[in-house]
Amino acid sequence: MSRWFSIVPLVVLASLAALFIGWSLKRDPAFKPDALVGQTAPETVLPILQDGVAGPQNVDIRTAGVGKPMIVNVFASWCAPCRLEHPRLLALEAQGIAIVGVAYKDEPEATQAFLDELGDPFAMVLVDREGRAGLDLGVSGVPESFAVDAMGRIVAKSSGPLLTDEDVERLTSALVAPSRPLPTATTLDEAQERRDAAN
Question: In the chain, at which residue ranges do the beta strands (DSSP E only) sit?
């Protein structure tokens, strides 16, 4: 009987290995989930990084662009790929594209040192020490970037560092896509006439 108990862990381990291998063979490595594309950016309120300190001012991600299109870049000072993509962010900022940084699970002093060393491409940096914004945005790892239109809607996402012109173009072209027209005000009589005409 005790022999069977010694075999059980091996059987469980072999089963888990078979499941993992089967899953990894079916998984498309190029798949990058874009679950939030087309949805409004979350209203996660975070403190603004000011001289290496979080706060005292706070802002939510959705309105951080102040009614203009923006790229939200989730990064961290401890992230090696974030260093690789940083020159692309500086180039975007030089083109006049607003970038809001979200310092993911990072200490404000470390974030400030990172920006002092490499340059600061961000219109503002939000401090996300606990990773709340990362959860709300569905971040699977840093860096990740989101193109957000003037209405606060996510129109494109890039998982991983922005390393190629194609990566950057996918985000920036989504920002310049034509916006939907604003609704026009109508009187109650006009609205009733339209309903009557439709029936």
Answer: 45-50, 53-60, 70-75, 99-104, 124-128, 144-148, 154-159
The answer to whether the Cα torsion of 146, 122, 174, 82 is positive or negative is negative
Kindly state the helix (H) or strand (E) to which residue 76 belongs, with its residue range: none
Q: What angle do CA 35, 39, 40 make, to 5 degrees?
A: 130
**Which amino acid is present at 50?**
Q
* Residue tagged 């959860």 (tokens): 135
What global pTM score does this model have? Answer: 0.72
Residue 159 pairs with which residues in a beta bridge?
144
Per-residue pLDDT tens listing for the chain (199 residues): 566 666 766 666 666 555 555 544 444 444 445 678 888 999 999 999 999 999 899 999 988 888 899 999 999 999 999 999 999 999 999 999 999 999 999 999 999 999 999 999 999 999 999 999 989 998 988 999 999 998 899 999 999 999 999 989 999 998 876 544 444 444 556 656 766 776 6
Structural tokens at position 143: 């860096």
| Three-state helix/strand/coil letters over 1-31 | CHHHHHHHHHHHHHHHHHHHHHHHHHCCCCC
> Under a CB-based contact definition with an 8 Å cutoff, are residues 148 and 71 in contact?
yes
- Closest C-alpha to 72, from 146, 124, 151, 178: 146
| DSSP state letter for 40 | B
